[in-house]
């Protein structure tokens, strides 16, 4: 009997100690506004039981320029982190050096951070501890170089040797292919790209038993001549497709408008999220589709405050149309004391205001909890693999978008 009493006493003491430690950690988080590595949805008993993971894939790009915000990552809300990234040359080597604004040669920032920034290693370590996969993003954004590379089979081998080396050095096995053309391309190049995707996937499987290859695709790939337009083959040859379901309006658009509209029945629009998904699902199994969502918006200089106002060409005097990350948009709303409006067709928030510094009328379309919740529900209703985030870190130290992921995919 005494031994049983001792056991109960020991267990009770451990619980008390853990409670004290948990309270201490939470207080530190409040003082320093840290959301990492424990989220606000954690409690003391979560240390005694396994964390619930998302029921769908939550795939987040982490750009090198957002590494300072990595301390706010809530790993228990993620399934995948894709470091963005390493740019390639036309011969399959990684771009190691570039010229800065003054013409001096410097290390390419994505490469430099991958190689030298200890935060990258800390992220990988924390991700592994939390069961989160980490991918290396291979970036190709120069049209001429892309054509040269895809038409050079020997260059594919060069790239794969470089990719495998980097993956092994970091203890990883996953890759994201982010090939983007500034202009449209032709069917021949799109098919060549699918052959390259198959080659990469096969090579990764040979070297890593559990590799996972995701390919980025433009939202209009089903209706425009994109490098990612051979959807049927792209679906077969990859493990997942990250649909870049955003940029339906951009800073250079003729008028302000939603970045990721649900319904396209609005001014000068012939495409939207619903139509896009229907097109993709006609070619690719839903369990391979990751719907990318924007943690950003656009701020246009416009003629008036009417919805979908016509954009005015920017200059030094009136300012320029620009992109804004979620955290900056929320801070602007608070500073300007503006209550956003709701676009019922697009199912997104927007607002207009007069710039205090230039006197110009500006209009902003972006995403918030309400608009993202609708996109998450569409993801679930269509049985997609999950959602993708462009980009991690764009919400700063705010917790509401993390809480939304918890509510929609974990709770």
Global morphology: globular
Percent helix: 25-40%
The average pLDDT score comes to 90
Strand content: 15-25%
Distance between the termini: 41 Å
**How many alpha or pi helices?**
11
- Radius of gyration in whole Å, from Cα? 23 Å
Feature tags:
411 residues; eight-stranded parallel barrel; 11 helices; alpha/beta; 36% helix
Structural notes for this entry:
By secondary structure, the protein is an alpha/beta fold. It is about 35% helix and about 20% strand. It has 11 helices and 15 strands. Residues about 25-50 have low confidence and may be disordered. Strands 1-2-5-6-7-8-9-15 form an 8-stranded parallel barrel, surrounded by 6 helices. It has a 5-stranded antiparallel β-sheet with strand order 11-10-14-13-12, covered by helices on one side. A hairpin with a 6-residue loop joins strand 13 (about 350-355) and strand 14.
Tell me briefly what this model is.
The protein is of the alpha/beta class.
SSE blueprint and pairings:
Layout: H1 2-32, E1 57-63, E2 80-87, E3 97-99, E4 105-107, H2 109-116, H3 118-129, E5 133-140, H4 143-150, H5 153-170, E6 174-179, H6 187-207, E7 213-218, H7 231-237, E8 240-244, H8 273-281, E9 289-294, E10 296-301, E11 322-325, H9 326-336, E12 341-343, E13 348-354, E14 361-365, H10 369-381, E15 386-390, H11 400-409
């Amino acid at each position: 009997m005494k031994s049983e009493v001792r056991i109960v006493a020991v267990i009770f003491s451990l619980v008390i100690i853990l409670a004290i430690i948990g309270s201490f950690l939470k207080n530190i988080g409040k003082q320093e506004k840290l959301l990492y590595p424990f989220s606000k949805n954690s409690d003391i008993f979560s240390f005694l039981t396994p964390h619930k993971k998302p029921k769908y894939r939550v795939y987040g790009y982490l750009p090198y320029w957002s590494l300072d915000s990595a301390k706010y990552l809530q790993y228990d809300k993620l399934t995948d982190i894709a470091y963005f990234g390493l740019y390639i040359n036309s011969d399959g080597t990684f771009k190691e050096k570039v010229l800065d604004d003054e013409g001096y040669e410097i290390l390419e920032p994505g490469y430099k951070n991958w190689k030298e920034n200890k935060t990258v290693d800390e992220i990988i370590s924390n991700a592994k501890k939390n069961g989160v996969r980490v991918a290396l993003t291979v970036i190709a954004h120069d049209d001429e170089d892309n054509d040269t590379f895809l038409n050079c089979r020997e260059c594919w081998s060069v790239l794969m040797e470089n990719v495998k080396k980097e993956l092994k050095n970091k203890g990883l096995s996953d890759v994201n292919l982010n090939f983007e053309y500034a202009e449209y391309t032709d069917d021949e190049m799109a098919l060549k790209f699918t052959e390259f995707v198959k080659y990469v996937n096969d090579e990764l499987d040979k070297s890593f038993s559990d590799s996972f290859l995701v390919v980025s695709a433009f939202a209009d790939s089903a209706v425009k001549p994109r490098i990612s337009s051979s959807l049927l083959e792209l679906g077969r040859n990859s493990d997942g497709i990250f649909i870049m379901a955003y940029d339906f309006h951009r800073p250079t658009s003729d008028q302000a408008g939603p970045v990721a509209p649900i319904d396209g029945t609005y001014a000068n629009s012939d495409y939207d999220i619903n139509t896009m998904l229907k097109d993709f699902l006609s070619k690719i199994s839903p369990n391979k589709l990751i719907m990318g969502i924007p943690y950003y918006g656009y701020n246009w200089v416009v003629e008036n405050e009417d919805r979908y106002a016509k954009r005015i060409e920017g200059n030094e005097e009136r300012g320029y149309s620009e992109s804004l990350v979620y955290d900056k948009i929320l801070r602007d709303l608070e500073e300007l004391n503006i209550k956003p409006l709701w676009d019922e067709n697009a199912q997104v928030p927007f607002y207009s205001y007069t710039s205090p510094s230039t006197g110009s009328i500006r209009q902003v379309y972006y995403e918030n909890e309400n608009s993202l919740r609708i996109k998450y529900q569409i993801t679930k209703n269509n049985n997609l693999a999950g959602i993708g985030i462009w980009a991690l870190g764009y919400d700063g130290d705010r917790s509401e978008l993390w809480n939304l992921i918890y509510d929609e995919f974990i709770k």
